[in-house]
Fold:
Amino acid sequence: MSKRVALLTGGGDCPGLNAVIRAVTRRSLDRGHEVVGVREGWRGLVDRKLQPLDERAISGILPRGGTILGTSRTNPFKLEDGVERVLEHVESERLDALVAIGGEDTLGVASRLFEEHAFPVVGVPKTIDNDLSATDYTFGFDTALTVATEAIDRLHTTAESHNRVMVVEVMGRHTGWIAVMSGMAGGADVILIPEQPITVEEACRDIQRRHERGKDFSLVVVSEGYELTYASGEKRQIAQEVAADEFGHVRLGGVGHFLASEIEERTGYETRVTVLGHVQRGGTPTARDRILATRYGLQAADLVHEGRWGTMTALRGDDIVAVPLRDAVAELKTVPPEFYEAAKTFFG
Ligand code: F6P
Structure:
């Protein structure tokens, strides 16, 4: 039976969202379903902002970054009548299914709607942070990793020319996946991540040891969620002075500057900072992300066709599998200690 399938993209955008939209739409249209896009994440279902998706709408979007549907960090559970309005609009728009493409927050809403209201939803895992459980990788991460690695490579040559310490701050929220993997790929001399926070003193010692070995420059990668940690036991999370979002997240960013001052003061080496910020999220997806996003999208369309609500498409090894949505949002996927230990071999 033909279904009316809705699609939304929620939370921070990331490269590959359009590839999922294209794959879900293409396969669903081929099966005789109708597809509609929901504008700006959950806000579009609260405020009833929909647009038709046909062959023309998805033409040429595969390599495009961002999302043609727009996105937001709206949480219907935090709005007065938010959930009621979502349910009302699903009914009045005769939507039979929703594909929610998002990270921890967007999929957390999807999971609750499924558990508490038997909402017909299927999830697709995206985020540059790669911090979702139940999947080996989220799409968007590979692109962010590639951008960060290229930045580290570029900073190496200028660091070397000036005998400087370069601190690169990358995103990742409360996990250090981008930091540890770009740091390994780019040959960083110190990497600081939230999961295994080495102290500022240790980081300075590693840099000093390296300089004593005759290297006049160093590359330090720090994850935005790293808390400045001192040998005294003192810890300091650096966040911007703005209100938390509807999911309770503070806006991170800026730790690189504090770390750089500490390094310069304690070691005497001239130090500079680069905060990569949203550059990591913008632009065209890597081939790997395009393929992963496409495979996720095709499977999400299959799950909708089969009515397997409350599931999420996931990567296990090389296989695309379906997992319960609740498993994906139960806990954050953090960097395992052994992974960080491997990176530490090259510190100093
Ligand atoms: O979750 C993706 C992410 O890019 C995080 O790495 C970062 O902390 C956050 O989003 C930034 O959010 P915003 O785009 O709202 O500034």
Notes: The pocket of 6-O-phosphono-beta-D-fructofuranose is lined by residues 12, 103, 127-129, 171-173, 224, 251-252, 281 (CB under 6 Å). The longest helix spans residues 141-162. The mean pLDDT is 97. The chain has eleven helices and 13 strands.
